[in-house]
Amino acid sequence: MRRRLLQSLVPMVIVLAIFAAVPLANFIATGASRTLFLSRSNDADWFATMAEGPLQSGDIASLRELAVRYHQLYNTPVFVVDVDSRVIATSRSGVNIAEPDLATALSSTLAGRLPAEPPAMWPWKSGEMVVARPVVNNGRVLGAAVLRVPTERARDQVQNGLLLLLAGLIVAIVAVVIGIVRPVSRWVLRPINDLDNATHQVTRGALDTRVSTDGRAPELRRLGDSFNSMALSLHQARQREREFVADASHQLRTPLTSARIHIEGLSRLSPTARFALSDIDRLGRIVQRLSRLAGSDRPGDAEGNEEPLDLAQAIKERLVGWKAVYAADDLELIIGEMVPGGVASELEVDDILDVLLDNASKYGAPPVEVSVLRDGTEVVLSVRDHGLGLGSRDLKKVGERFWRSAHHREMPGTGLGLAIVRSEAARVGGRVVARPPIGGGLVIEVRVPLIDDYDL
């Protein structure tokens, strides 16, 4: 928007500068013309005075000699005519008094009037300036003295003046743009820039960001109030989400603890109860992760041993159970390449794989392929399905809490599965990437840092 504002203001400054420069240029050209005309008018007056005697006596030899000498000295042709416009003395031959500029000047001068000042001299025009003065005796016009003044030097001076004016005009425009237009555009757009920065802050998750509306124009004040109301609504919605997850996880802890106590008693009597006890422990870990996801627990509360975990081996062990689940539903599960790679031991591999395979079976289409690869300094757990996939906008939202694709909102689910996966990956410095593979479908990659000193 600032560029558009500058694109409208800068041409206005240029137009105003041109309007201001045109009178100055005319002043330069007119001033040079007037200066030359006045200086040569004095010489023409002197010649008119010197021609008064010869025109009365008829002795024009001395007058012709003066004209030739003046021409040689100032490179300015001179001639004298009588009252009948006949040339009686000239510094050069071939004078044509029928030329329009000469005829106009002589008609005015022989009528006893001083000719008007010549127009402004511009560099792109050429020609000589005509300066005529009447020869008068006792109020009677005897003739006229005429100078044909060269104007090349004066036009060069005008050209230099116009070039200086142009240079000054460019400097003035640049100075105005830098010193006035740009600061004014920044001042005008400051509220919009503040709103833009605040929007980016909200996009990055800072929902407590607000914009100031004091001293702003009514339109911008309303826009700022609307933004603040929107940010407040988002903040409150996020708080309600956190409170919901925190309350749900808190409410689940008590019955899980009670169930674990009862199942521990049953485990002494039935070996099957030991498997139920393992599932209860797993549910407890899920509740703990939900608490971390809600922000009620600090990341990294869970402690594990420092021995790295082979992600490929852990995935293969968990896939044994999932192959049976997929086979029972007539779904094809393909185990792809499994490259060993050490990752942080506190990474909840089972839960991550459960979420990815459960989503692939519900929202995707078989076959579903699972692989573990290395990519530089990362170990990548990849789960691919062959369903409809997601659009480019939806791919950017994968992993957001409570977000669900418009195609899957009628299906059961909470929208927290991938959010938990992303939280778990982030807890060990990893990330979740969703992308469309060649051939259609969807690939979810969990990328976690590779532990280099892992002993394969």
Automatic annotation (TrEMBL):
Location relative to the cell: Cell membrane
Signal peptide coordinates: none
Cofactor: Mg(2+); Mn(2+)
Catalyzed chemical reaction(s): ATP + protein L-histidine = ADP + protein N-phospho-L-histidine
Record keywords: ATP-binding, Cell membrane, Hydrolase, Kinase, Magnesium, Manganese, Membrane, Nucleotide-binding, Phosphoprotein, Protein phosphatase, Stress response, Transferase, Transmembrane, Transmembrane helix, Two-component regulatory system, Virulence
Domain HAMP: 186-239
One Pfam short name: HATPase_c
Domain of life per record: Bacteria
Regions that span the bilayer: 161-181
Molecular functions (GO terms): kinase activity
Domain Histidine kinase: 247-452
Membrane topology: Multi-pass membrane protein
Protein name in UniProt: Signal transduction histidine-protein kinase/phosphatase MprB
